[in-house]
Amino acid sequence: MKVSYERFTTADAVFQRARELTPRTIIIDVEPLVAWWDTGRDQLDSGVESVVSQLGGLAGLRVLCFATNSARRPSRVPTGEAAQVVYLASAGKPLQVAHYQSLPAPGAVIGDQVLTDGILARRLGYAFLHYCPAPADMPIGPRLLQYGGRPVLPLLFPGPNT
Questions:
Q1: What is the distance between the alpha carbons of residues 17 and 151, in angstroms, rounded to a whole number?
Q2: pLDDT by residue (tens digit) across 122-147?
Q3: CATH architecture of 5-156
Q4: Rounded distance, CA 130 to CA 117, Å?
Q5: Sign of the C-alpha dihedral, residues 154, 29, 4, 9?
């Protein structure tokens, strides 16, 4: 798997593509894919459980990593059927990469922000599966960050898809 970029508007489509790529590591941004911004621990727990059940048994997957720059944590991290499940709160994406450097390649980063998740994918040499929910549904902070990432996208991932 090479460094690449693909854009998705639904969580189902991005998770399906992750399954098709058969990475050894998947790093998933928590907000909004796992739990929407500013939701409670119940939604976070439910979202983590759902993603682990969808991807945790993937053939060849060794690590399923949830990463968020927020401090929120689930009440427990479930175990994957085949993969080790890791949850990183206050992850410092994209500046702090030490957490990820020992993870097995090839890999994919699934996230909504070019300036955090996309740069992290590029730094690690992973594919970036860009989840793009409707901006009207996003809080103002993530929406502004999304707009700010647009000019950077072709620099990180040059090609016809950007």
A1: 25
A2: 999 999 999 998 877 788 888 898 88
A3: 3-Layer(aba) Sandwich (3.40)
A4: 8
A5: negative
User: What residues form DSSP beta bridges with 117?
Assistant: none
What are the boundaries of each domain within the chain? 5-156
Helix 11-21 and helix 41-55, axial crossing angle in degrees, nearest 10: 40
Give SS3 for 101. coil
Using left for φ > 0, alpha for ψ between -120 and 50, and beta otherwise, residue 43 falls in alpha
- Give 6-17 pLDDT, tens digit per residue: 999 999 999 999
Give, for 147, the enclosing helix (H) or strand (E): helix 140-149
The terminus-to-terminus CA distance of the chain in angstroms comes to 18
pLDDT at 20 over 80: yes
